[in-house]
């Protein structure tokens, strides 16, 4: 019969220390209406470098199933601070100029964190 292994040592490394909300993975959730998806998508793609420089680690774009003019974007960041800074950048430097292609109305944003990963 093989020896029983210690159930508290399953090969997982212990995290360096407790994570704070400022250092948790954060998603910038954006919703807004658009006039034309291809035009909007071209503008979104042109901002690829800005997203990278702003700390975006992943991006997901979805259209509402019942409304092809309502778009949802989730941008992932390593923490709350870069996500908040990027939201400010979007509000002030992109959407606030009145020159955002295919944007209809005012976008809404919200920072999201995994409730099970909170310290």
Outline:
By secondary structure, the protein is an alpha+beta fold. 26% of the residues lie in helices and 32% in strands.
Instruction: Determine the strand fraction and express it as a percent band.
Output: 25-35%
User: Uncertain spans, ≥5 residues at pLDDT below 50?
Assistant: 6-22
Helix and strand composition category: alpha+beta
Distance between the termini: 40 Å
The CATH architecture can be named as 2-Layer Sandwich
Description:
The protein is 26% helix and 32% strand. The chain has helices at 37-46, 48-53, 80-94; strands at 26-34, 58-64, 67-77, 103-113. The radius of gyration is 19 Å and the shape is globular. Mean pLDDT is 84; it is low at 6-22.
List keywords for this structure.
119 residues
Helix and strand arrangement:
Elements: E1 26-34, H1 37-46, H2 48-53, E2 58-64, E3 67-77, H3 80-94, E4 103-113
Antiparallel strand pairs: 1-3, 1-4, 2-3
């Amino acid at each position: 019969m093989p020896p029983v292994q210690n159930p508290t040592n399953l090969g997982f490394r212990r995290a360096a220390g407790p994570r704070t909300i400022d250092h948790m993975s954060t998603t910038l959730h954006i919703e807004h209406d658009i006039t034309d998806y291809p035009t909007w998508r071209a503008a979104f793609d042109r901002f690829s470098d800005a997203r990278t420089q702003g700390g975006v680690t992943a991006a997901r774009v979805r259209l509402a199933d019942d409304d092809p003019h309502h778009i949802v974007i989730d941008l992932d960041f390593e923490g709350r601070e870069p996500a908040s800074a990027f939201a400010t950048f979007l509000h002030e430097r992109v959407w606030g100029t009145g020159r955002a292609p295919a944007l209809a109305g005012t976008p809404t944003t919200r920072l999201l964190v995994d409730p099970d990963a909170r310290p």
